[in-house]
Description:
257 residues; 75% helix; two-stranded antiparallel ribbon; mainly alpha
Amino acid sequence: MHIVDALSDRAERGSLRTLDPRLRIIVATLFALVVVSLSGLATLLTALGLALSVMLAASLPAGPTLRRMAAMDGFMLLVLLLLPFTVPGAPLFEWGGFTASAEGLIKAVEILLKANAVVLVLLALVGSLDAVTLGHALARLRVPTNLVQLLFFTVRYIGVIGEEYARLRIAMRARGFRPANTLHTYRSIGYLVGMLLVRSLERSERILAAMRCRGFQGRFHLLDDFAYGRADAFFAGLAALACSGLLIMDIADAAAV
Length: 257
């Protein structure tokens, strides 16, 4: 057991999870901006390969991560299927009296590759951060205080509101409510949403009063103090090199065309 624990600790120290959270946010944002600006299929495939490499380096579980990506792709597929029929260009095939264009199909593939590459990097670099660490990192990056506090409160109390919703649903079922496609059901759901908003407002007022009693003056005091290390500098250099390479590759592809 001690050998297994030592190997797992060593793997954890060697993964991207040990990097400075501020650097992870900056790199994820930079990579997303670069990928969105790309247009060549070869460059986008390279970006997707880099995103997969980052996912593996971050030690993300492949199964759950790919299932999340499949869920996102399934949602996007309904929209992307319409692009070949709405973007003008060289006819590719006809279906139901509508003509699909090659340019529309290429555009759909580009959007799909961009979305997968960006989301994979975000999951690997930012999604693996806990909410408190993410909030502290955003605050250290000089993100507006109100946004950081909104993130903290949302993460903290979304579960509380979910529990309140569950209690209201149990109360409705105890009174014999069964959802159906009727006016009574719609009216009952409207009452449920209204009551949830009222109770949420009352709870927020009680929480604000309790915080003021404890000396809250409109801002949180940051306790985490991050520091860059050699590993952070090495990863930042790799990220800058990768993003520059993608841009150069995309410009070369555009010039060749």
